[in-house]
């Protein structure tokens, strides 16, 4: 009833107003009126309508996302970037010099070297090492990274009481590698062509140096093969590792050496049967020297021109070449001795004695009463005494009687321990199988390439 009366009143008012407006305007007004009446007629009465809640979402929130609105939280500020300044340790540098170049003062040096802990590490600087400085905009040292080597570094970080110290030691990864070569002129040239470093070639010579005199015994056609380690860090080769197994063929005779690490951690080389490759004496006191005069009891002396026994072997080498003791022992004489010139005599136990003559000079601590180790340098090649040129005269005595040092049978060192022999024999067999397998795999490829 109320709705009808309202509609009648609206129509009367529209009729009055319509007479005062042009027809075009009336047409638009009529359309608007009709729409209004329809809307009013469709809407239900207020007491019959359902309650509706509208959630106004911010433009960033999707209408189909059921998330609880939260207060916006600003993101955490990212930590400030560390800017490292590098200083290289130079010859003669002190920590004060380096800190001054980095823009720091003596107080900074004192603070980092007197807080305790591992601060004394910084007093052992070596040329070539690096120091990385983290210094803030106010000139304060926040961190110091001491790069001792590619493997070791020490980080000093500032705190309220001084510095915290964190030492990092990286581990090298060992990769096995195989190499072989045939000798045409010398072991060094063959080793270099096979890609071996000088250290590896020297180690190979040391292993077989008990049985092969590399100055006298080497022949064209001799050969070697070996499995050794290369030590890597982050995919980069850092250095050579140990020789794991090697075989040397000299004048048709085969020598094989297998590395064994004892339970105590000592590494030595043994034959596949478990005998030590290490004898009580080295065959030669000089590496890769040429024999200029052999043992000869009826040789004519080159200076005196008389028949005079040559009781040793002469090794021609350039002046200053290091001379090694061929065995462990004690120096019983170091000084001048007639035609021998400067001489060193070493006693090895009760039965053996060696003599080294015509020296240019003595090594440090090479004097009477001092004990020496096998391979230790005791002097340097010269031409003192009755000598026509620089060379070493080497004599070998057994029970007081002189012997030819080239041909004398050298005593063996201790064999592998009985408690470790069974495991070693299995390991030795495996390493020999690997040597043969590598050789068989490479030889056909070389023949194909040729």
State the CATH class of the domain at 290-403: Mainly Beta
Query: Mean pLDDT, as a whole number?
Result: 81
Number of H- or I-type helical stretches:
7
CATH superfamily of the domain at 290-403: Glucose Permease (Domain IIA)
The largest sheet is: 10 strands, antiparallel
* Alpha-beta classification: alpha+beta
CATH fold title of the domain at 290-403: Glucose Permease (Domain IIA)
Q: What percent of residues are in strands?
A: 25-35%
Helix content: 10-25%
Q: What integer value in Å does the Rg equal?
A: 46 Å
Would you list the SSEs in sequence order as H and E? HHEHHEEEEEHHEEEEEEEEEEEEEEH
Q: How would the global form be characterised? A: globular
Cα separation of the termini: 118 Å
Quantity of strands, as a count: 20
Q: Under the CATH scheme, which architecture of the domain at 290-403 would be assigned?
A: Distorted Sandwich
Low-confidence segments, given as residue ranges, are 37-73, 445-450
């Amino acid at each position: 009833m109320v709705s009808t009366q309202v509609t009648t009143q609206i129509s009367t008012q529209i009729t009055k107003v319509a007479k005062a407006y042009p027809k075009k305007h009336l047409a638009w007004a009529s359309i608007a009126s009709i729409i209004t009446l329809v809307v009013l007629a469709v809407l239900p009465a207020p007491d019959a309508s359902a309650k509706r809640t509208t959630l106004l979402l911010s433009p960033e929130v999707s209408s189909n996302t059921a998330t609880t609105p939260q207060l916006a939280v600003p993101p955490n500020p990212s930590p400030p970037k560390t800017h490292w300044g590098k200083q290289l340790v130079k010859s003669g540098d002190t920590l004060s010099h380096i800190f001054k170049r980095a823009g720091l003062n003596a107080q900074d040096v004192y603070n980092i070297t007197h807080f305790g802990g591992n601060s004394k590490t910084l007093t052992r600087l070596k040329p070539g090492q690096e120091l990385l400085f983290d210094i803030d905009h106010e000139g304060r040292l926040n961190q110091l990274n001491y790069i001792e080597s590619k493997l070791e570094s020490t980080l000093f970080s500032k705190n309220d009481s001084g510095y915290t110290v964190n030492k990092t030691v990286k581990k090298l990864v060992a990769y096995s590698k195989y190499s072989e070569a045939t000798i045409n002129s010398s072991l060094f040239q063959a080793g270099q062509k096979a890609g071996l470093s000088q250290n590896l070639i020297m180690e190979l010579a040391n292993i077989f140096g008990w049985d092969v005199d590399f100055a006298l015994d080497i022949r064209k056609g001799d050969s070697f093969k070996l499995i050794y380690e290369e030590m890597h860090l982050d995919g980069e080769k850092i250095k050579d590792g140990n020789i794991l197994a090697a075989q040397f063929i000299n004048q048709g005779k085969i020598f094989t050496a297998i590395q064994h690490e004892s339970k105590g951690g000592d590494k030595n080389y043994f034959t596949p049967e478990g005998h030590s490759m290490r004898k009580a004496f080295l065959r030669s006191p000089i590496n890769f020297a040429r024999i200029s005069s052999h043992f000869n009891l009826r040789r004519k002396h080159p200076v005196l021109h008389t028949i005079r026994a040559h009781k040793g072997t002469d090794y021609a080498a350039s002046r200053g070449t290091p001379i090694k003791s061929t065995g462990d022992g004690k120096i019983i004489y170091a000084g001048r001795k007639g035609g021998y010139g400067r001489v060193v005599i070493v006693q090895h136990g009760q039965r053996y004695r060696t003599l080294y003559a015509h020296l240019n000079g003595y090594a440090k601590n090479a004097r009477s009463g001092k004990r020496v180790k096998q391979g230790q340098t005791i002097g340097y090649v010269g031409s003192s005494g009755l000598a026509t040129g620089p060379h070493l005269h080497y004599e070998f005595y057994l029970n007081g009687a002189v012997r030819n040092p080239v041909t004398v049978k050298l005593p063996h060192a201790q064999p592998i321990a009985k408690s470790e022999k069974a495991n070693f024999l299995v390991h030795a067999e495996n390493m020999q199988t690997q040597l043969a397998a590598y050789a068989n795999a490479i030889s056909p490829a070389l023949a194909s390439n040729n």
